[in-house]
Write a structure and sequence with these properties.
The complex is a heterodimer of chains A (241) and B (634).
Chain A lengths: L1 E8 L8 H14 L16 E3 L8 E10 L6 H11 L4 E9 L6 H4 L2 E7 L6 H13 L4 E8 L2 E8 L4 E6 L6 E7 L8 H12 L4 H7 L4 E11 L2 E4 L8
Parallel strand pairs in A: 3-10
Antiparallel strand pairs in A: 1-3, 1-4, 2-3, 5-9, 5-10, 6-7, 8-9, 10-11
Chain B lengths: L6 H4 L25 E7 L3 H4 L3 H12 L3 E7 L3 H9 L18 E5 L6 H11 L14 E5 L15 E3 L7 H13 L4 H8 L5 E2 L4 E9 L7 E8 L8 E2 L27 E4 L1 E2 L9 H5 L4 E2 L2 H15 L3 E5 L9 H11 L4 E3 L10 H8 L5 E7 L3 H6 L6 H13 L4 E8 L6 H20 L10 E8 L16 H14 L5 E4 L4 H10 L5 H10 L13 H10 L4 H6 L13 E2 L4 H12 L36 H4 L2
Parallel strand pairs in B: 1-2, 1-3, 3-4, 4-5, 9-19, 10-13, 13-14, 15-16, 16-17, 17-18
Antiparallel strand pairs in B: 5-6, 7-8, 11-12
Helix pairs in contact in B: 5-17, 6-7, 10-11, 13-14, 14-15, 17-18
Classes of the chains: A alpha+beta (241), B alpha/beta (634).
């Protein structure tokens, strides 16, 4: 029985990395007495998958996890039993049942929505002006560290195509809502974008720009995918048919 | 005021989950509602400290004491330390983010000598004076305990109060004395004076060391200790260690704190029995944890049920100094597997002479990776010297069984530098490894795996207090390395892999482990030169230690190289650990003649333990023989 769970991550648990988060959730499921189906093979592990890992320190209000249950348990019961076992900093918002044939969420997600709150280093008006100019560029080059044939290599990539949509947040200073590429093929991390923005605003002052690093607050609010030409929000409660 | 750590710091250090607490099963209380605020301090990084079973036990025991709140703190890794110093963040506790200097007690656990510099570093990061004599009424009482507290003297200048022995026993009484003293408006010195009258408590400032008026034989300027005695006669002449009388009587903690990041041993651990019957002459644990006392299989099973429910772990470890000696071990593991099919059970310290195929099959669950055996010495003669009661035949029979069962990797542990060791004994290590490879060759093709690897690892023998080898000289660095190179050149079999390491750490470990009050200057000097995390090879500063040794005039000839006489006053003579000096010396003499001593289960050797407690195997010789062997080898 396949269940999809939407959860939020906040407080100090944001500093628990993805692999440790998986272990934490597995143990919480064990404590909750929710038994998962185990994979076959040399190293059997419980069947559990995620839309995408969340970077260290980020908040989220729309993470997606999928699990295969070994027994029939109602959505409400999974939600309440699991929440009772989770430490402060992670909370399941809702749970629903999927058809076993449904492709894994990871394969459907191609974008994520973020709230990027920058530290107060500019007045609001100037910020809006600079940000607009920043994103009017056709090319924003960022250094990407990757592996080529097993060797560490740095290369410059244009990250601008990874931004699908953006808007200023009317009720929050120095804040933008972003829809960015998320997934295996193309991936844009909003912190990379923020760091390039500091450089853009503070040309010739790399040290000042560097001091701003990690002072931005990033919240992932939803995962999106393209279905029949339109964006679909997967982190929302699906409408009952 | 709780300490705030900004995101911008946490995101710039490795593994920030080390510094945030918030774990499942951590205890959260309101500090203001508790009159004793205690911080358990582990002088190593979180990922190492959280593997320590004693931490989990004491954390549970103390938080069960009325009016006590016990929190945890670990040594921050160097990147975090730098950030904390840059931003004036003092060392804090993981539960309530309270600065360590605001606690009433800081309790350090002494697990190994090479963590001593970390203790000074943690005190400094906490803003607590390093030296006991410099602390004021505003400062916490700095305590220490754990296995290395059996020689409290090297840290005597830094520690206000030692707790000697097993931690489950006397804390309540100590805290009661603290409360009464505070009610009467007493000073910290008055508290320490009263505490020193309690069993198991050693207060270094109340004991004085006198030295002889001439250097020890073969030494340049270091005199031997003439005596250690209390400053007034109403204090005990010797501090008797505390021993748990009945392990099952104490509630065993079944809600361990679950770390938020993967640690070295990421599983729940329970002790199945304490102590060891074998009496290997190099082994400190085998002497200081006497007598053998067991947790009944019923208690273990209850713990397994409770712990799995409270943690959700999928691996548990049943710990002891020698797993095979536990009565009904196979039955117990079978029961656990039947009840919890997805749970892995791991057992440390399996003896090769008791290798049992069905047991190993049970544990491996189809995954036959590596088997580890501690042979300790390469020749029968030397194994007799150290009283490691296993024969070459037992080793070969054990590995032969393993090869027939399909295992293809065998790891063997040895020590170099054991007393009376000759190059012939060292050659024996290589020969034994080759004979093990030969066992694999002799195993029928259809039964054995396709290839085999025999890994030989050597470490260096370091004499420890309260062992029969406390009297013996330790090899010099050069000797250690010569022996290692010799062995390396003699391992020619291509299926044998040899692992070894630099010996300097073992030289230092020996120096600190049999050190005395004068050794404190050396530890402080090394720390001032930047030494910390000394057991981490990438952070170890050999040059700084060498300089510190030279500047403080510490003589290795005195501490490491000379043989000690029976009549000499040792720094650790202030402690009564149960085993007597007479027994240890007799064992030392027997070792020189290559005579072995029977195990506690076979015959009482009158080690002295019975003079301080009568429990466990001291009163029930057949404690470990509750089930017949037939039943075990199904």
């Amino acid at each position: 029985m396949k269940k999809q769970l939407i959860f939020e991550k906040y407080a100090r648990l944001r500093f628990v990395g993805h692999l440790d988060m998986m272990r934490l959730l597995q143990r919480a499921l064990n404590r909750a007495g929710i038994e998962l189906v185990w994979s076959q093979g040399f190293n059997p592990h419980p069947r559990m998958s995620f839309a995408a890992p969340l970077a260290l320190g980020w908040y989220s209000t729309g993470e997606i996890m999928e699990i295969i249950l070994a027994e029939n348990i109602s959505d409400e019961e999974v939600l309440s039993r699991l929440n009772a076992q989770l430490p402060d900093g992670i909370r399941i918002l809702f749970c629903h049942t999927l058809s076993d044939k449904e492709p894994p969420i990871m394969s459907k997600v191609s974008a994520a929505q973020y709230l990027l709150e920058l530290p107060a280093f500019l007045p609001e008006e100037e910020f809006q002006h600079q940000w607009t100019a920043f994103l009017c560029q056709e090319t924003i080059l960022a250094t990407k560290i990757g592996k080529v044939k097993g060797r560490r290599q740095e290369k410059q990539v244009n990250i601008r195509p990874g931004i699908y949509d953006w808007s200023f947040c009317p009720d929050k200073a120095l804040t933008v809502r972003l829809l960015c590429a998320c997934g295996g093929e193309l991936n844009l991390k909003p912190d990379t974008l923020a760091w390039k923005f500091y450089d853009f605003c503070l040309p010739g002052m790399p040290q000042k720009a560097e001091e701003l690093h990690y002072r931005e607050k990033i919240t992932r609010t939803a995962f999106y995918g393209q279905e029949e030409g339109t964006w679909v929000n997967y982190s929302q409660i699906p409408e009952k048919e | 005021m709780p300490i705030q750590i900004p995101d911008s710091i946490l995101l710039r250090v490795q593994k920030p989950a080390r510094y945030i607490g918030g774990e499942v099963n951590a205890v959260y209380k309101k500090p203001s509602e508790y009159d004793v605020h205690y911080c358990f301090c582990f002088p190593d990084v979180y990922d190492v400290g959280m593997c320590h079973l004693g931490l989990q036990i004491l954390y549970a025991v103390m938080n069960d004491c009325d009016g006590v709140y016990c929190e945890r703190s670990f040594a921050p890794w160097t990147d975090m330390e730098q950030k904390m110093r840059e931003n004036q963040i003092p060392l804090y506790s993981l539960e309530t983010f309270t600065p360590l200097r605001d606690f009433q007690f800081l309790g350090f656990t002494l697990q190994y000598e090479m963590s001593y510099t970390n203790i000074l570093n943690m005190l400094d990061l906490a803003g607590v004076p390093i030296f006991s004599k410099d602390r004021t009424e505003e400062d916490p009482i700095v305590m220490a305990g754990g296995p290395n507290a059996n020689n409290p003297e090297p840290l005597a200048d830094f520690i206000d109060l030692y707790y000697i022995g097993e931690g489950e026993v006397e804390f309540n009484e100590l805290f009661q004395v603290f409360r009464e003293n505070r009610k009467l408006g007493g000073t910290r010195h008055e508290f320490l004076r009263k505490a020193a009258e309690l069993p198991g408590i050693y207060v270094p400032e109340l004991y004085q060391t006198l030295y002889e008026d001439h250097p020890a034989a073969g030494c340049d300027h270091t005199p031997r200790i003439a005596s250690i005695h209390p400053v007034d006669d109403s204090l005990p002449q010797k501090v008797e260690k505390l021993v748990m009388k009945d392990l099952d009587a104490a509630e065993y903690p079944s809600r361990p704190v679950i770390p938020n990041l993967q640690i070295v041993h990421d599983r729940a651990a329970m002790e199945i029995f304490r102590g060891c019957i074998h009496g290997c002459r190099f082994c400190n644990a085998g002497m200081i944890y006497r007598p053998v006392r067991i947790h009944s299989p019923q208690a273990v099973m209850k713990w397994v049920d409770d712990t799995l429910r409270s943690t959700g772990y999928d691996e548990i470890s049943l710990t002891s100094l020698s797993s095979n000696d536990y009565p009904g071990l196979y039955t117990l593991i079978r029961q656990i597997h039947e009840k919890y099919p997805h749970i892995n059970v791991s057992l440390p310290s399996l003896r090769v002479d008791a290798f049992s195929l069905p047991l190993m099959e049970q544990l491996a669950e189809g995954r036959k990776s590596g088997l580890t055996f501690a042979a300790e010495a390469g020749s029968q003669r030397l194994r007799d010297v150290i009283n490691k009661g296993i024969t070459e035949k037992e080793i070969l029979d054990g590995v032969s069984l393993a090869f027939r069962g399909g295992w293809d990797r065998v790891k063997l542990y040895f020590m170099l530098g054991l007393p009376t060791e000759t190059y012939e004994d060292i050659l024996g290590i290589s020969e034994l490894a080759s004979r093990i490879v030969q066992e694999w060759v002799n195993t029928p093709l259809e039964k054995r795996s396709r290839n085999v690897t025999v890994t030989v690892s050597t470490s260096f023998f370091v004499p420890k207090p309260f062992t029969p080898f406390q009297f013996c000289p330790q090899d010099s660095y050069d000797h250690y390395m010569q022996k290692q190179e010799f062995l390396s050149s003699r391992i020619v079999n291509r299926k044998v892999v040899y692992h070894c390491h630099d010996a300097y750490l073992s030289t230092l470990e020996g120096l600190l482990s049999r050190g005395d009050r004068r050794t404190g200057r050396l530890i402080c000097s090394a720390w001032k030169k930047g030494c910390k995390f000394d057991s981490w090879s990438d952070l170890f500063r050999k040059d700084s230690w060498e300089q510190a040794i030279a500047e403080t005039g510490t003589e290795l000839a005195y501490y490491n190289y000379r043989e000690r006489e029976k009549g000499e006053c040792f720094p650790w003579d202030i402690i009564n650990a149960g085993v007597t000096k007479d027994f240890l010396y007799a064992e030392y003499e027997k070792s020189k003649q290559g005579k072995v001593t029977p195990s506690c289960a076979d015959q009482c050797s009158n080690c002295g333990m019975r003079s301080i407690v009568s429990t466990g195997i001291c009163t029930h010789r057949d404690l470990l023989r509750q089930s017949a062997p037939e039943e075990e080898s199904v």
